[in-house]
Design a protein that fits this description.
mainly alpha, two-stranded antiparallel sheet, 3% strand
Length: 272
């Protein structure tokens, strides 16, 4: 046996947090890819149903010969379905973008490239109780790769919050400050409480809104949101996340482990 066994770990060694999170992220990507595959299938079914219904209803009683351009409303059923598929899929994805998802990702730009907002937090925290730290939002792929800001494994990739008071786990309960301020997410960097009615009745007069005990939930979207644009942004963000996982490695550097013997196969239990 060699004196050193690089890359070897004891059979009972605990799984690291980074290993667990990488596995969970891979599973979440698989889940989202399956969801998108279902949406594509749904789009094909809808497009096929629309075309068959159109022909049965007599809009086009005599199908055009094969090879006729589908763009002119002619051609075989398959040609028409293929032509209608992009718009149908875009409509279905836009509708799906307005629904709650099992996996959420911040779709914004890189957090270190944005211009941070500048409310005087040191002055305001005694009044506002740092209630912005109770808002719910998603982290980005960059946050996940950085591995500093914690996320809720049960609700990927929402910011991790405490059950005791609803605050972000990185909030200092004594001072109200952020303990990972240098690595804070993009949402925290660009958020400005001064125009937020959840925080202030009148910011200029320093009159805070009533403090509620239940955590503030920021999952609701504005009714004016462009769902098609959101669907496109989500697809782009998921592409970034998938590439980040595929291009990452399970080990950061060489590590020496113990000299171990192969695991002994477990004997099958006797049938009762």
């Amino acid at each position: 046996m060699p004196d050193k066994t690089y890359g070897t770990v004891d059979h009972d060694a605990p799984v690291t947090r980074s290993e667990l999170e990488r596995a969970v992220r891979s599973l979440n990507i698989s889940d989202l890819e399956l969801r998108d595959a279902v949406l594509q299938l749904a789009a094909r079914v809808v497009a096929l149903t629309d075309e068959v219904t159109r022909r049965i209803d007599g809009v086009e009683p005599e199908p055009a010969p094969p090879g006729t351009p589908a763009e002119r409303g002619e051609g075989t059923i398959e040609q028409r379905v293929v032509a209608a598929l992009p718009d149908t899929l875009a409509t279905i994805r836009a509708g799906d973008a307005g629904q709650p998802t099992r996996v959420a990702l911040d779709l914004g730009p890189d957090k270190y490239s944005v211009t941070p907002s500048t409310p005087p937090c040191d002055e305001l925290i005694p009044l506002c109780k740092a209630r912005c730290c109770r808002l719910t939002f998603a982290l980005s792929t960059a946050d996940l790769d950085e591995g500093v800001v914690r996320w809720d494994i049960g609700q990927p990739y929402l910011i991790r919050q405490r059950a005791s008071d609803g605050y972000c786990v990185h909030n200092d309960p004594t001072s109200g400050g952020c303990t990972v301020h240098a690595q804070r997410p993009r949402v925290c960097r660009v958020y400005d409480c001064r125009k937020d009615p959840r925080v202030w009745i009148d910011y200029d007069q320093r009159i805070p809104a009533p403090f509620v005990e239940d955590p503030v939930d920021d999952k609701a979207e504005s009714p004016a949101i462009d769902l098609a644009a959101r669907a496109t942004s989500r697809a782009r963000a998921l592409g970034v996340e998938k590439r980040a996982i595929n291009e990452s490695y399970a080990e950061d550097a060489p590590r020496v482990g113990p000299v171990v013997t192969p695991r002994t196969p477990t004997s099958p239990r006797p049938k009762s």
